[in-house]
From TrEMBL:
It comes from Polysphondylium violaceum. Keywords: Hydrolase, Metal-binding, Metalloprotease, Mitochondrion, Protease, Transit peptide, Zinc. This is Presequence protease, mitochondrial. Residues 560-807 form the Peptidase M16C associated domain. One of its GO terms (biological process) is protein processing.
Amino acid sequence: MIRLSNTLYKGSMCSNRIGRQAIGLSKTLRINYSTATTTINNNNNNNNKSKLLSEDFNINSRINNKNYCIASAVAAQPSTKPISRGRERQQIDLKIGDTLHGFKVVDIQDVKEKQLKTFRLKHIETGAEYLHIDTEDTNNVFSVTFKTTPQDSTGVAHILEHTTLCGSEKYPVRDPFFNMLKRSLNTYMNAWTAPDHTSYPFGSQDPKDFYNLMSVYLDATFFPLLSEQDFRQEGHRLEFDQMENPASQLKFKGIVFNEMKGALSDPNSYYAEQSQQHLYPSTTYSYNSGGEPLDIPNLSYQELKDFHSQHYHPSNAYFFTYGDLDIKNHLKFIQENCLNRFTRNESIVEKTKIGKVPRWSETKRIQLTCPPSSMDVNPERKHKFSISILHKDTKDVFESLVMHMLSQLLLRGSNTPMYQALLESGLALDYTPNTGYDDNLAESSFSVGGVGIRAEDLEKVEKTIIQTLEKAAENGFAQNVIESILHQYEFAQKNVSASFGLNLAGGLSSYWIHGGDPVSPLYLNKNVERLRKEIADGKPFFQNKIKELLANPHKLVITMQPDEHHQKKDADAELARLESIRAQLKDQDVQEIIAHSKELQARQNQEQDVSCLPKINICDIEKKQKKIHHRDTVLETTPLRVLDQPTNGISYFRATIDISTLPEDLKPYVPIFCSFIDEMGAGQFDHKQLDTEINLYTGKFSTSPLISGSPFDLAESKEQILLKSACLNHNTDKMFDLWTKILLENRWKNADLLKILLAQRQSSMVENIPSSGLSYAKTYSGSKFSRGGYLGEMWSGLAQVRLTNQMVSQNDMDGIIDKLARINQFVIDRSLMKCLVTTENTNITALESSLASFLKPFPILNNGSTINHFANTSDTNANKSFFAIPATVNYVSQNYQSVPYTHQDSSNLQVLSKVLSEYLHKEIREKGGAYGGGVSLDSGLISFYSYRDPNLLKTLNAFNESIQWSLNDKITDKNIESAQLSIFSDFDSPESPSNRGVAEWMRGITNEMKQERRDRLLNIKKKDLEQVSQKYLNNNNPSYTTVLGPANTDIQSDTTNWKSEAL
Ligand SMILES: [Zn+2]
């Protein structure tokens, strides 16, 4: 079921994108290109219900009360003496008109509904804008944003974003950004390029660390070195395939070049990008700010430098800070380290103004092609179609709220007119990625469209969309549906998020840079109240909005169909370009290419002294593990854990159901059971009414399959279903009542509906294969090692995609209904349940008593629990699998078995993974030009990976060389310290009250185990790492490698080592 969230229609392509959900507004797919790949996880599939929960393997905790030791190489520190934090922080005694450190206070607001105080300032000399949000939250955030308005698709803004992070005046080392990831306790570090701005945000809880990072970020953005070699490494360069052999193939290389090839081979991103470029002609939005691979080689080094001086200037800068640290210190630091070297530059302000799109007088139609989908399913349903309408400028927050709300009313979930007319009718299989209201750009747009359309239905789809809008303009919307969406806003507003400040940094900036008031979106309640007045007594407020949309002549109609030559055309154009360059190369040019390549390689190989960079010391890491207190009890016979947390009036409920003894023939159907359990209708509610009821009374309602590995033994993984939901405290009984209906009175017997849901599931899975390449590769490899891995593949791997395809093609709906009903019969067994509730102290008794009444009607069936052992039936000789997909880059995953959480070697392996990642970053990203590569330790696996990688064999070599390197006395104390810092910045990153203690409950990890792991991680020696490398990664240990990538004749003909498999 599609619910209110930032992944309303499709997830964002950057797994680490932060956004507007913080202020209760959701968004359509917006393409931002980001630098860091450090958060690539196993969950980059949009179809989140088919994925295992990331909570399962991510044990975090939070520390307070730090002891600070005297700094080593440190950036100028405003103050190192202990300061009062959080609720006890010093009050800020600034008033409007005050001047301080070159800034003037222009506005102060007390946002009571969010318990925040906002301060807007202007830098007097340069006009730089500044917004500070004062709050008790100790997860402080900084970001600096520049308006960047490219006038071509060479990716200049994006390449600049990468290159600024490659060394600066004060920090002239090759890669300060990636080095700081290992020298800091940051809670977030990234940079991204949006269509009209570039942002550099970070978060940290530690004051010293905060200023270290601020120093590096300010110096990187305002005073970067922008060396030509970095431009060639990050942007583009010519190189011979064999570096010194001019007879070998000439190639374009570069990190952004490959990143964009990967990004645009994802059909979702490609569609959204094309839709934007055509709807906003003759503005900066008609270009791809990330860069078109064919245009990127046109960018010159001089143009890169010019773009920097024309955009990265304080007169075009927006500073944002958030948290409990004192703004006065921030202002002083920014003034002294940066702004006092600049004066106002009016011409920059003029240059980055975004003009209005000249309005069309009639609808414009375009036809596009895209790469074929990864699996040849539904061959007759290949068309995509959408209508986009250019709306208004985006400064008005109330208009944004109204349009987002209207978009929900029309599109979200099964009780909306567009869903019924377009998807439930079977005309389309899913919405297009641009569907919804988008207010990220200077002018907003509203789009509706479908994918998986038959050629002969295209006209009908267009008519249906228009007629559905006309009908809604006539009839309006049911009051309870309106209320259900308003309730979701209220819920989102109360829900406490650990990354609230970061989300604001991302979410407020698009109002701000387009000239709106960045504080106004924080007043959600006020705007909702105003909306309630507008729609009171059935006034046709939304109807008039729809009429406005229909009357707007600036409409873009896109039809897209796959063309198997689509990628080949691009590849041919690239080759032709290279051929023509080669034909004109003189001897001298050839020598220059070789010399440049060697020079770059020598530089990449050079050991560098990074001691000029500030850092946190190991002694800054808290030794004591912060305990999370809980109370374990039993409700009748059901185990219950109670977590007392400051949840701001919300009750969170979770339950696991042990399904280890569920008959094996039903197990593959568990993810489908979980996906559809709240989509079929239950009790007196049909599926549409049920959707509205869930949104009226709950939030975060979901059911998912869950595998949790035992902390003691990898062979013992628990096979479970996880129920999860939350509600405002006064809705607790309503929430449990919905669960009772869904579990005990489900309306499975609806073959027509099931058929539609399955087709939608299939379409979304197949569309998302390119963006989930790495996750599928890893899951497939993991299936060779353990029962947990085997189930992972069955539930969230390619096997699950195949099963879905098979169900659609066999079309035996009654057979499937029978299986789902049997699973349902099994899981209502109370003896298999285990519950957890999180709420504030005053609400615990009430919540427990509601839970007890909820559990009563569930029967005790004693289905029993067991440990299912792993039987590997696969061919043990070939240990490398290759899946050809229509992509231009590879996703590579090479895996070894690891050890359970409490094993002595587990923490050593965790540090080793980080050390090896540092080695591989240089080989795979810097030299190889891949977007990312490294080693991760989770799910019982040690996984070597690369992501959007132009190479394959070279990368596999690099994996093996990294292991040899670790055995040859090469690991240094510095490597270990960097690894420890980076582990602890994850380990101690803040968690929201609703998530605290949950992962520990799922996996049975105690405070003592965590303390023991902490002690081990802090006391690791080089010999420990060498020993585990020898023990787990040497040649005698079984490994399994899986690759998803473009057809590769070398690999596919090497049948001794490789198994070519069909998706
Ligand atoms: Zn990038």
